[in-house]
Amino acid sequence: MAGVTTSAPDGRLPVTLITGYLGSGKTTLLNHLLRQPELCRSAVIINEFGAVAVDHLLVSVPAENMVLLDTGCLCCTVRGDLVQTLTDLDSKARSATIPSFSNVIIETTGLADPVPVLQSIVVDEVLRRIYRLQDVVTVIDAVHGAAQLDRQDESLKQAVLADALLISKGDLAGQACVSALRARLARLNPAAEIHEVVHGAIDPAVLLRDQPHEAAAAANVERWLREAQHAHAAIKGAHSDAGIRAFSLYREQPIRQAGLALWLDMLSGLRGANLLRVKGVLNVEGEPCVVHAVQTVVHEPVMLEAWPTDDRRSRLVVIARDMTLEEVERTFTAFDYAPQPQSRAIDPHAYAQFVAAMKGFQR
Q: Could you tell me the pTM of the whole model?
């Protein structure tokens, strides 16, 4: 079995987010994971309102609101500010008030929108120096999952934003239900890994990668692009759940650095509500750059040392709600934006480019 990441090469600690609707089996999964020796130095944050079934693992209380589990994992329950909790964990580990930890697992409440949690990790200036988001894992109940996707927007968003989708309770639902749910999830989120789990049992290496940050970024985005492109032919032009579509976009010409910054800012600020997820490799002035955005949350772009394949085009996969491929393509005008060196006078050409880029973001 592959090893589990203990820390990023740049010193930041990897964070795995576990989401899923009420009763989907998140805590069962978490209890299984915490029993695995690879995760004995994990910090676990349970963002729940009710009691969580980890009491049987309790050994001692090393700090306020934190418990040490008999597996060696550190666990705390947060009902308030996640940013403060993550900051406190790091501070107390550095001062040896609590045991050191090698990675963080966050289990959210079943009613949670994952985006604010992602935003806390990716955007906060303090946290982004300590932690890096590694994976979003969503647990889907095979018995009730289809109905929840139909009726609960939170369930739908949790599925769309996942890197890995785990179908639970398949032994109770039957293979026909599992197959139908798997096909539906593949249409919703064509690049997510889909696994079936029984009683939470899964190899930790499936969820916690052992690749360095840059290598993981390259490998993950290539898998995302290949699988989404493969699925694209089956769903091209067709509406999925609640107006959600997945499509691939390409651009032959290199992108300017200033244009990329403008596009990312406008993407999150003006179209973030519709663009549920964007991931791809962009040709930024000849160099490969991995970009990843979840609604208003824009991950820090990762410059790669080399192209992952011979394809030098900019390639993006977009999962959007109530948007068309043509609408997203219009935003590409921003990629050509090239402001002149600062001067007291407004540069007419740069201003015209900016106006043209803005039009691409208007409906």
A: 0.76
Say if strands 164-168 and 131-141 run parallel, antiparallel, or are unpaired: parallel
Tell me the helices (H) and strands (E) count for the chain, helix number first.
13, 15
More confident residue, 238 or 106: 106
Q: How far apart are CA 280 and CA 265, in angstroms?
A: 16
Q: In one letter, which amino acid is 323?
A: M
Q: 103-108 and 13-20: which strand pairing?
A: parallel
pLDDT averaged over every residue in the chain: 79
pLDDT value of position 28: 86
The partner residues of 249 in beta bridges, in order of sequence, read 316
| pLDDT for the residue 139 | 94
Q: Which helix (H) or strand (E) holds 250?
A: strand 244-251
Structural domains present in the chain: 13-207 (3.40.50.300), 213-360 (3.30.1220.10)
Residue 199 in this model has a pLDDT that exceeds 60: yes
pLDDT value, residue 241: 66
**From CA 198, how far away is CA 142, in angstroms rounded?**
11
Backbone angles phi, psi at 151, to 5 degrees: -110, -25
**CB-based contacts of 337, cutoff 8 Å, min separation 6:** 256, 258, 259, 262, 350, 353, 354, 357
Type of residue at 207 = L
- Can you tell me the distance from the alpha carbon of 283 to that of 254, in angstroms, rounded to the nearest whole number? 5
